Amino acid sequence: MRTLVLNAGYEPLAVVSFKRAIVLVMNEKAAVIEHVDDNPIKGTQQAYDRPAVIILTRYVRVPGARNIPVTRRGVLRRDSQRCAYCSKSASTIDHVLPRSRGGADTWENLVACCLRCNNVKGDRTPQEMNWSLRIIPRPPRGTQWTVRGTDRTDPSWEPYLELAA
């Protein structure tokens, strides 16, 4: 079971394990605002609701803009597993400007690509192939990218994730 952690200002911070959430609540560092309707957890002195969403009692400062690291899996997810050139199912990634010509491993230079298009394109740019990109490669945005674990959400989290979107 997983629990959504909100900052004191109701912004989503992270998804933590059920055990970590209980520890935060027992140490009075967080309060339960949504709970699962199962049996409560019985401690030595009191019973605790099973938390689905907790809010921290003190505001935690989040450092600047959260940079999302570029990964193969992330590029495929951003592009919905579709080739940027032909829209077929993608299993590889491609550098729009090839690495041999100075292309970097950035969100703006990487796209999902099917194996056939990747092999045909080779070490050329889309302009040299007279191809056009189906999407404009950009860094991903949204809470499911900045808050780890929100790609598989619980229905009770929806109102809190919508506030941050």
From TrEMBL:
Indicate yes or no for the key word Hydrolase: yes
All residue ranges annotated as the HNH nuclease domain in the record: 70-119
Q: Which GO terms describe its molecular function?
A: endonuclease activity
Q: Per UniProt, which keywords does this protein have?
A: Endonuclease, Hydrolase, Nuclease
The record ties this protein, via CDD domains, to:
HNHc
Q: Matching Pfam families, A to Z?
A: HNH_5
UniProt keyword annotation of Hydrolase present: yes
Q: Can you say what this protein is called?
A: HNH endonuclease
From which source organism is this entry? Microbacterium marmarense
